[in-house]
Amino acid sequence: MIQVGIIGGAGYTAGELIRILLNHPEAAIAFVQSSSNAGNLVDAVHRDLVGETSLTFEADPDLTKADVLFLCMGHGKSKEFIESTSIPASVKIIDLSHDFRLKAEGNDFVYGLPEINRELIRASKRIANPGCFATGIQLAVLPLAAAGLLKNELHVHAITGSTGAGQAPSKTSHFSWRNSNVSVYKAFQHQHLGEIRQSFQQLQNSFDFDVNFVPVRGNHTRGIFASVYTDFEGTAEEAVKLYEDYYASHPFVFVTSENPDVKQVVNTNKAVLYLEKHGSKLLILSVTDNLLKGASGQAVQNMNLMFGLNEKVGLNLKAVAF
């Protein structure tokens, strides 16, 4: 049984992790850390877990009890935690922040997108879990990059649910502002662009085009709907075959023949892709759950790979149609 520790346990991604891990047949939660909630019941913060766990938050857990640590802290905090904490060498780490996603000298974290790095993840002790927007956008484009078919700039319009902003309330996340509202933010300069470009260049060394990304705050709670288009010389049928072949061995990515919607993937670790050809442009629609395939579900998928399990174990999550 894999013993799991969660650092920074009060936020949305930690709550999703706990929900998944409580039902994971090969994992047990050793502790959930939270300085601000130390001594409180976990289900007093994550109310959806009422009746499912008697765990309490700990301020300073014994890290030797864990085989793997999930770091669910804010950006910048994971690096600070690792540098200031004595973590046993045997403990594996999966970081859900932005801190280690970009390659740099001294960074031994593997970028945790299984659809490009599955074998590296299996062999790694430290994983940088991808960002939510980055996951959906990359899955929409990876087959083109792998085939060397990115010949021009990419145009991306993607809308995310309010949980993508985290649990701490802010001007643009509270209900009265977000409900019945839509707004653009960080156009052309979103923090996920670096990891997106890094992955495209990993698969296609010659990639040096703009990724014109316009992120949108949606008025729904969870789910990302990304529209991507770029030049493609082949037919629609050739594009579909390219995508189906690329994802044939990846169990959470599905190419559909019908225009998708967010409800197909909410509460699941799935990504659903749909393609259309319009003149010289290939349009790819990508839908994912920002808290699952975009965060905690993918983190558990990575844990499964790191410990030699089938990557689907514990992730048989069902979408809710209504």
From TrEMBL:
The keyword Amino-acid biosynthesis applies. Coiled coil: none annotated. InterPro entries: AGPR, AGPR_AS, AGPR_dimerisation_dom, AGPR_type-1, NAD(P)-bd_dom_sf, Semialdehyde_DH_NAD-bd. It is found in: Cytoplasm. GO terms for molecular function: N-acetyl-gamma-glutamyl-phosphate reductase activity; NAD binding; NADP+ binding. Pathway: Amino-acid biosynthesis; L-arginine biosynthesis; N(2)-acetyl-L-ornithine from L-glutamate: step 3/4. Keywords: Amino-acid biosynthesis, Arginine biosynthesis, Cytoplasm, NADP, Oxidoreductase. Its main location: cytoplasm. SUPFAM superfamilies: Glyceraldehyde-3-phosphate dehydrogenase-like, C-terminal domain, NAD(P)-binding Rossmann-fold domains. Belongs to the NAGSA dehydrogenase family. Type 1 subfamily. This is N-acetyl-gamma-glutamyl-phosphate reductase.
